[in-house]
Every structure is written in C-alpha cells, then in structure tokens.
Design goal:
Layout (H helix, E strand, L loop, with lengths): L11 H4 L2 H14 L8 E3 L10 E3 H11 L18 H15 L2 H9 L10 H14 L11 H14 L4 H14 L10 H9 L6 E5 L38 E5 L3 H7 L3 H7 L1 H4 L6 E2 L6 H9 L1 H5 L4 E7 L15 E7 L4 H4 L6 E6 L9 H17 L2 E5 L4 E5 L1 E8 L1 H8 L19 E2 L4 E2 L35 H8 L42 E3 L1 H17 L9 H10 L8 E2 L5 E2 L9 H13 L14 E2 L4 E2 L4 H15 L6 H17 L4 E2 H21 L7 H5 L3 H8 L3
Parallel strand pairs: 6-11, 11-14
Antiparallel strand pairs: 1-2, 3-4, 4-8, 5-19, 6-7, 7-8, 9-10, 12-13, 15-16, 17-18
Length: about 725
C-alpha cells in the first residue's frame, strides 16, 4: 500500500491536501479489521500516539487535525504484520521516541552505530546493554527488565536521598524476597556497573586544595601540586585508600551530543533552527540574532551543516546542603544546545551539566583551572568533530560544536570573563570610560544623561541631577579591538589561593586574567562573549526600588550616608540632615518614601494579591508587616513585582511623576522579556531605558545607582546582538 501521504501530515497545508485526505480514508478502511467491541481502534495521531483508542470517526478527525505519527509506517497496531525482527525492533524504537521514558533512553543507546565505528569494545558494550534491556529481573516478570529496574532504583536513590548502605540493604532484601534465579544486583556498586554502559558516567579528576592545578594529563601521576607544593591527598597515616582534598567531576560532552542524534525526534529538533525556523526579521530564537548570523559569515563551512551544535554556557554557585549558615558551595557548569527550538532549549532534559566544581569556597578567577577539560573538548569538537549517527537519515556524519556565548549572574560574569566586577571600573561594557561618583563608602553609576542626544534639554539641567551640565557623549557599543588590545597587555597571572602565590593585581583598566575561553579559535572575533543575566538585574533593581521606598533595613538606599552625599554635592537641600542642639539628626521625609501607615497599606495590598497557578510564588506569605520586611524573595518573584505589582501597588502612595516612572520601568522589562523582539523595538528600548534612568536619578539619591542598576542600560543592545539568549 502506498504510504507516501504520511509525510504530508507534517504541515497544516499538507493535511488539507487531497492526497492526505485520501490516505486517511484508506487507513480507516484498513483499520476496520481491528475494531473492538466498543467500535474503537488505537488512534495514531500525534496526540494519541496509539496509546488512546477512539471510534473510527474521531480517529479520522484527529488525523486530519493533528497528522499521523511520521514513524508509523508499519501499521502493526491495526493488523499489518511486521516484516522481520529488525523491523519490529525499529518499530519499538519509534514508539518510544514519541512516548518517551526509560525505554526510550535504553533504545537510544543501543541503536546501531555508524558502519565505520570501532567494531570491538563498543560493539561488545552495546550487545551487553541490549541483552540487559531484554532480560527479565526474574522468570515471569513482565514489567521490568534488568536495565529498567536498575535505572529506576538509582533514580529513587537520588530523589529520596538514600545512602549507599540503604541501597545495599534493600538489594539484599530483594534478592531473598524474589524467586531464587533473580538477576537483582548484589550491591549498589554492581548496579552502577550495569548503568555505566548507558554513557551516563563521569570522570573524577583530583584538584589542588588551593585551586592551583588539576591532576590531569601531565599532572595525573603527581602527589603534590607543582605550584604550591601542597599535598594532593589528605593525611590518612598510611591507613586505607588515599583521599584527595578536592575532586572535580567532569561529564564528557561528546557522548551526550552524539546521543541527541540517536533519537529520530530529537534529531529533527536539532535541525529546527535551519529547516523550520521562520526568518521574518522577528527575534524568536538565538538564530535570529546578529551574532549568530555573523558567525555564519565568518565560518561558512560550519554553517553549511545544520547538525553542527551551537552551545551556550552558564555557571553559578549553590549550597548543596540547603543551609545558609554553612558557607560551602558547589559550582556547576551547564551547557545549553541552541539548535533546539525555543520551547525545548531551556528544558531540563536538554541542560547538560559538564563540570561540577568542588567547594568549599567559590573558585573565583581560578575557575579557569577547572574549565581545562571542557575547553580541550570544545577545541577538539571544533577542529576535528566527532563521528555521529543520524537516526533520521541512517548515515554517519562528522559533528562539530562551537560555544556561542556565556550567561551568568554578575559575580560569575567576573570569574569567567576575567573582568573585575568591583570598583570604579566594574561595568564591562563601559570599560575604561565609566561615569561614576565616589560616595561615602561606595561607588555610584549615575550620569546617564551622557547617552542622550547632544542637544537634549535634560543635558542642560543641573540642580535636578548632580549640579552640573552634562556635555560628555557615550556610546553603548564596545569595540572588539579595544578588548583584544587590553588583553594583550595582561601578563603574569598566577592561579591558586596559596599565600605564597604571587598577589594578583588589577591590570589596566580592570582585568584580572585572560579567560581560558580565548583558547577557542573563534572566541576573539565574538562581539557578544558574556551576557548579562536579565533576571538578576531585575532582582537587584526590584529590591533597590521597593527597599528604598518602604525603608527596609539592608535594602534601603536612602540612608544617612546617602543624605550626606547630597549635601556634599550641594543638591536637593530639602533632603539634607538637620542637626539638633543635642547632637542628633533629623532626616526629612523624601517624596518617594512611604509613611508607616502607607507601608502597612501596601503590605495589605500584597497580601490580597492572588496569582494563577504557577505564575509566581505566594508573595503574601513573604510579607512580614511587624518588622516591615519582604523576605525570601526569589528572582522570579522580583521579576513579577517590578513588572506588574509594584507600579500598581505604589500608585496611591506616591506622586504622579514617580508612579508614571515606575510604570515605564515595568513596561521596559515586560517588553525586553517578551517572547518575540524586533530590531526597531529594541532600538527604541535603548532610548527608553536611558530616559527612565534619568528620571530615576531625579527621584532617588545617587546611592541607589549601584552597578547592577546601571547594567539595565546595556540590556537592549545585548538583545540586539544575541537575541533571546
């Protein structure tokens, strides 16, 4: 029977063609032979995937509306016999790719390798894995094979925080409980050995306690650090196995990238950016961005193959014990494959942890020491690639990969880029020409009037700002050549935290090192190497705003020192501290500050707010009206506050100009964080944020404008370069 009509179901236009309609009719006639007593058959549409049964009329409607499974070419569920065992195996794989789950994971791994792949150890491993995927845990067990049992057991161990000892005890019990000839592993170690062949293993690499080196490649056999001479191992007085001070866990990237092409469904998704993306000038995906297109121009051979992988990199620290009084932190390095469509790229299954950097303190700029295995692998994937199997075409191809950019919070930005994110020059984009003000105990980043047109009237206003006219002119663009010229002058960087190591000095203008990422051949030409994380900017901006307006201790930027700064600058005399005869000071109320009664009203407003499920946390529970605090706010909570809640909640307590500015600020972040962007809209956003920051300078004291608040001015230009990265 001709089944070429199945391919037409991919698109809405194809599903209304006469060929597809005739094909559906022929399928319905063929499937009548398997109608059950209720008049239903398994429905092979993309929604039901033969899992749900429908009557013939509904099956016909579903197929015309959603299309048929593209891999369902042998209608085995509807009476068509399988051609051979091999065809049956391929059929089972196709179903699993649609349904997902553990079985799909196993089938992806045992899928045949390219014909020219090594035919010894690899083949033996696959044969063993295939055997384990078919063997029953005990005779007559139809629900679990050995491999599926081990995977679910170890998943339960991780989910429920079981110890190794508890797993051993459980396995011993199951061995006794089940029939005599069962295949239950005898220990946790044996279970891990079975799972190792799935390609989910990682490498353990010892590291110097002072972060000087990792004991890898040329240092693998050393017992002492070649730089600081610290011992590799803890002192155990000759008893038992040597225990290293620090262990880096490295998850090789290549096997996981190859696995993306072992599944037909994922293989098609990995080519989405080239074959299915609509290029209409709207930014929906990083492939729509200027940097992606510029990379294609610079490396045309790489761009010709849509299966070559483009990656993003993110680093952050977290406390694995969930105890904030414990300063221990782990630092995962995560990679994101940007080939995937936007609704998949940031989903958990496709986020690939490449490194797990040990604590207990953060690595700082020494993170380059731990990045060595990943950078070496990225270089190998760029230069030579890896032979991979394409499950759609059934052919092998040489897969290459490139790192497009990184994205982190501000401290991690400094660790990865090598640009020191503290002090007068902390803004990477402003570089060696920042417009800062030295205040009492901190540095402020004001004077955003310099981004306005040269003849703008706000430039000539002085008393509303810092008491001066603004004649300087700044650009929001940072030339690539300027960065490379500065990095050529960075020398003498020593990694490691040992006291004997040479003290690291800031090198002009604010560099601490040349990042290890510059070893990647294509990295120097990138205009956008390190993204500013919008969510962290929103969080800090939000906390500064409501903290200052509500007078929350620790978040309030309108402190006594801030009022003294105004006096030193000779502006806003109505806000200066007034000295009493007894030596105490009176702090006049600012127009942006809420009275205690107004603050209680705002808190009541927050408590009354209700949100759709999954939209935000229950912020009402985070309000502590007794001490006037908002506690335990997460990044997404601040995202919702600054965009939606704060402008509305403050409207009745502040004057019209402040309320209008808060609405403009919320609207700016809403537009910037939307699912689609346009170049002309982003250019307007660049102008809008400059005007908004200028208005805020006239409202809040200079201490309000820390570097994170200032970074908002650079976000639209980064979006132009990197799109929805």
């Amino acid at each position: 029977m001709d089944k070429s009509w199945i391919a037409l179901g991919k698109t809405p236009d194809g599903r209304i063609s006469q060929s597809f309609i005739d094909g559906v009719t022929s399928f319905i006639k063929f499937a009548m032979a398997v109608v059950d007593q209720e008049g239903k058959i398994p429905c092979p549409c993309l929604n039901c995937v033969n899992y749900y049964s429908q009557n013939l009329r509904y099956v016909q409607i579903h197929l015309l509306q959603y299309g048929i499974m593209q891999t369902y070419t042998i209608w085995h569920e509807h009476g068509e016999p399988c051609v051979s065992n091999e065809a049956h195996h391929e059929m089972a794989i196709d179903e699993d790719e649609v349904l997902g789950g553990i079985d799909a994971l196993v089938e992806d791994r045992i899928r045949r390798e390219p014909n020219d792949a090594p035919q010894n150890e690899e083949v033996q491993t696959f044969d063993k894995l295939l055997n384990d995927a078919k063997r029953e845990v005990y005779l007559g067990c139809t629900n679990y094979t050995l491999l599926k049992f081990v995977i679910e057991l170890l998943n339960m161990k991780v989910t429920n925080h079981w110890s190794n000892k508890s797993v051993n005890t459980l396995l011993e019990f199951l061995t006794k409980l089940l029939p005599k000839d069962n295949l239950v592993p005898k220990s946790f170690y044996e279970a891990k050995k079975i799972l190792r062949d799935l390609g989910l293993s990682y490498e353990l690499i010892d590291a110097c306690i002072n972060d000087c080196v990792i004991f890898w490649k040329e240092n693998a056999r050393l017992d002492k650090c070649p730089k600081c001479k610290a011992s590799r191992y803890k002192i155990n007085r000759g008893r038992g196995k040597k225990i290293p001070h620090k262990v880096l866990r490295y998850f090789p990237l290549t096997p996981r990238l190859k696995r993306l092409y072992m599944s037909r469904k994922t293989t098609e998704d990995m080519r989405w950016h080239k074959e299915k993306r609509i290029d209409d000038g709207v930014l929906r995906h990083p492939a729509d961005s200027d940097e992606w297109k510029e990379f294609d121009v610079q490396h045309p051979q790489f761009a010709l193959e849509p299966r070559h992988v483009r990656l993003g990199l993110a680093v952050d620290g977290f406390n694995p014990f969930g105890n904030m009084s414990n300063s221990y932190s782990l630092w995962p390095v995560v990679l994101i494959p940007y080939n995937l469509p936007p609704w998949l790229a940031m989903k958990d299954p496709f986020l690939m942890m490449s490194l797990l950097i040990p604590g207990e303190s953060q690595p700082g700029i020494d993170i380059d020491v731990y990045m060595r295995p990943l950078v070496d692998e990225l270089n190998e994937l760029w230069e030579n690639g890896a032979l991979s199997y394409d499950a759609v075409t059934g052919e092998s191809f040489q897969m290459r990969a490139a790192l497009m950019w990184t994205i982190h919070d501000w401290p991690a930005f400094g660790d990865i880029s090598g640009w020191r994110t503290k002090g007068h020059y902390s803004c990477y984009t402003c570089n060696d020409e920042p417009y800062f003000q030295s205040l009492k105990g901190k540095t402020a980043y004001t004077n955003h009037r310099c981004y306005l047109p040269q003849n703008h009237p706000e430039r000539r206003k002085s008393t509303a700002y810092n008491g001066k006219h603004e004649k300087r002119k700044r650009s929001l663009k940072l030339p690539v050549e300027k960065i490379l010229e500065q990095l050529d002058r960075v020398t003498g960087v020593t990694y490691g935290k040992h006291p004997r190591n040479k003290k690291r000095l800031r090198q002009a203008p604010n560099w601490t090192k040349v990042s290890i990422l510059y070893e990647l051949p294509y990295w120097k030409k990138r205009k956008l190497r390190h993204n500013i994380d919008v969510m962290h900017v929103e969080k800090n901006f939000s906390e500064n705003t409501f903290g200052t307006m509500l007078g929350i201790d620790g978040k309030n930027k309108d402190t006594d020192k801030a009022r003294m700064d105004l006096e030193d600058m000779g502006i806003r005399k109505e806000l200066w501290l007034t000295c009493r005869p007894d030596g105490t000071y009176v702090k006049p109320r600012a127009i942006f500050s809420l009275t205690p009664e107004e603050r209680e009203g705002f808190f009541e407003f927050l408590k009354s707010m209700k949100y759709p499920d999954g939209y935000a946390a229950n912020i009402s529970r985070l309000v502590n009206a007794r001490n006037g605090k908002l506690t335990s706010l997460k990044s997404h909570d601040c995202h919702v506050l600054i965009q939606r809640i704060l402008p509305i909640g403050m409207r009745g307590y502040v004057d019209k100009e402040i309320s209008k500015t808060l609405f403009e600020l919320g609207s700016f972040f809403q537009d910037l964080c939307s699912r689609t962007l346009r170049h002309n809209e982003l250019e307007k956003l660049e102008e809008r944020i400059v005007h908004i920051l200028c208005k805020l300078e006239k409202i809040f004291p200079p201490a309000f404008f820390d570097v994170i608040v200032h970074l908002a001015v650079h976000l639209p230009h980064e979006a132009i370069l990197g799109g929805l990265a």
